[in-house]
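2024-03-11 09:14:02 DEBUG pipeline.ingest accepted 1 chain
2024-03-11 09:14:02 DEBUG pipeline.ingest length=602
2024-03-11 09:14:03 DEBUG pipeline.predict start
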Amino acid sequence: MSINGRDVLRRAITGQWKQSAAGALLAAGHQTGEALVPVLVGVVIDEAISPGDGGALLLWIAVLAVVFAGLSSSYRFSFRAAERASEQAAHRLRLELTERVLEPRGGAETGRLPGELVTVATSDAKRVGAVNVAMAAAVAALAGLLAGGVALLRVSVPLGLLVLLGIPPLLMLAHLLGKPLERRSGAEQERAARASGVAADLIAGLRVLKGIGAERAAVERYRLTSRDALAATLRAARAQAWHDGGMLVLTGVFIAVVALLGGRLAAQGDISVGQLVAAVGLAQFLLTPLSILAWANGEFAQGRASAARIASVLSSPPAVTGGSDAPSRPVRGAIALREVSYGALRGVSFEAAPGELLGVVTRDAAAAHALLRVLGRAADPDSGVVELDGVPLTRLEPAELRRAIVVADHDADLFEGTLLDNITAAASKPPEWSSLSPDPTVFEVTVPETAAPETTAPGATVLETSDPETLAGVGRAMAAAAADEVAAALPYGELTPLTERGLSLSGGQRQRVALARALAADPPVLVLHDPTTAVDAATEARIAEGIRAVREGRTTIMVVTSPALLAAADRVVFVDGGGPLAHGTHAELVHDHDAYRATVLT
């Protein structure tokens, strides 16, 4: 679906039309009340002060008090409604962006770093939402200008016509002044998002960068990106300054012309002293709505630029297209690749029988990555076909497919929460003792800070369950991945909170927790990619036995080069540069195939 920036802006405004309309109406009332003040002051002079009528003076002071109370209340409630519309519109945009990024067909992340997407979903969404406030303010400013023009018409027809006829060209000039700001604001947000993405990328790989001594190269990379973002910000700031300065000149000239014309009319005796005071007061008042229009114009320019960036994400073409069927039930788990070419894969064909533990070895890491993408349908092959139980994956709906085939990447991330929450996050039946359980009837107990913390983190929520099968399944997954050893080493066991990305754990511990999560999901087909590269040999041997035991009867494909894992496989397929395939047991290939032996034993 094609979406442009105008569509995003229109939906952000119309989706909150009730709040926006209420805010605009109340703000218009405030500006109208402000326009009445100088008019009433002129009336007080002509009707009470000049004739020396004390009773009329008290009456008109009371009227002024009522007007001030009304405009004060309308201001307060108008911007409360406008701000609510702004926040709700930004929130809906964030939800829409999140839904698009997580859409099973993918595509939104293509060519964008994670930090860039975060910036679009935060800063850009906020700017687009803020258009609701700018819209209410602009309507109020126009109402103030119209009220001021009508009031001036009552004082003097030439003054009123000057204001009413001068507003349209003033708005047109303001729009033209906002064009450079719109362009440069878009570039500013784009560069800032890029800098944020690079920073997030470098922080995520900080340990690796330190390990290989690449800190200087990383700093230089960020310095260049940051300088580019700074230059874009300075260009946008200059555009903002030219815009604000230009608007100030326009409004200043406009008000000066109104004041000069009013003074000339008073000097000629065409208007009274009170009317002159009213005219001067209205001329000064006009500065406020004109300034508001200048500010709103800048907000609209920035909002349009951010809306275009949001639209580019929402309208990103999907990574895979087509497919609406669900896999046949029950899923047997037969996988077949027939002359598949994608990325580094060239004409690859092999099969995995239902319930088979298959090892796949590639000499090229790019080929392994490409294989994972086509098996999980993150991408469709350029040619050839991948089948599940005889059905091409291109005919299957991606969300349904990924319930049948789970691909556990080598660099799978962990999340904030307890170790247990991370393991049960993808479980086919989340246990009731996980805080992710949707069951509202689960009994919750919050551990107080004063409780003995031998087994539970203070403040953690313990959820009880009566489902022995679920408990046993999670326990088997943890044992198979040696994650039970990780839990035993933590101060509060499986209820120990983890930091962002699981960085409170070592690399090997994170791998074991991620593997346990994949095993706990218990899908009909599980694809594992190098799940033990950071664990010691003894632990790796235990994990190999555990995977074989816990996945018995379900299809498992291990894209690995680990001799321990390959030795546990029923069969191994060797993909040598995408050319001819060799297959057999690990022992047979080590004995008979030199390239395979060099790949897995060196």
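2024-03-11 09:14:41 DEBUG pipeline.report The chain has a mean pLDDT of 82.
2024-03-11 09:14:41 DEBUG pipeline.predict end
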